[in-house]
Amino acid sequence: MSTNGNSANLPALINNTNGNIVRPIGITIGGEAASWNNGNLTVNGVTTSAARVDERGAPDRPSVVAEFNLSTSNLISGQSYPMVVTFRGRGGANRIFTASNQFLMP
């Protein structure tokens, strides 16, 4: 996710105020909805969102894993599309992050 090099902008894996797991509430690719694992992952006694893991499956604040059905999308082959992740923010305002890389439609 693009944070302009500032990881402090990224939501924590666990909300320090209330102890809740911070998980995505929306993920889109080229404006089309993707799905993600809304379950939990426990590593070394700490439980976080199963969607916020790196390529090894370890909890990772800037990483988000999603699934996207290519065959039912309206995206055009050979085109690049932004990937956007939305988290619930304070006071009901959402926090929206755009990935630093693009999805290239096969």
The total beta strand count reads 8
Unreliable runs: none
Query: Judging from the principal axes of the Cα atoms, what is the shape?
Result: globular
Into which percent range does the helicity of residues fall? under 10%
Return Rg in Å: 14 Å
What is the number of independent domains?
1
Total helices: the number is 0
State the order of secondary-structure elements, H for helix, E for strand.
EEEEEEEE
Structural summary, described in words:
The two termini are 21 Å apart. A hairpin with a 2-residue loop joins strand 3 and strand 4 (46-49). The protein has one domain (7-104). It has no helices and eight strands. With 106 residues, it is an all-beta fold.
Chain-wise SSE layout:
Blueprint: E1 24-29, E2 32-33, E3 40-43, E4 46-49, E5 80-81, E6 83-88, E7 94-98, E8 103-104
Characteristics:
29% strand; mainly beta; 4-stranded antiparallel β-sheet; globular; 106 residues
Short note summarizing the structure:
Helix content is 0%, strand content 29%. It is mostly beta strands and 106 residues long. It has one domain.
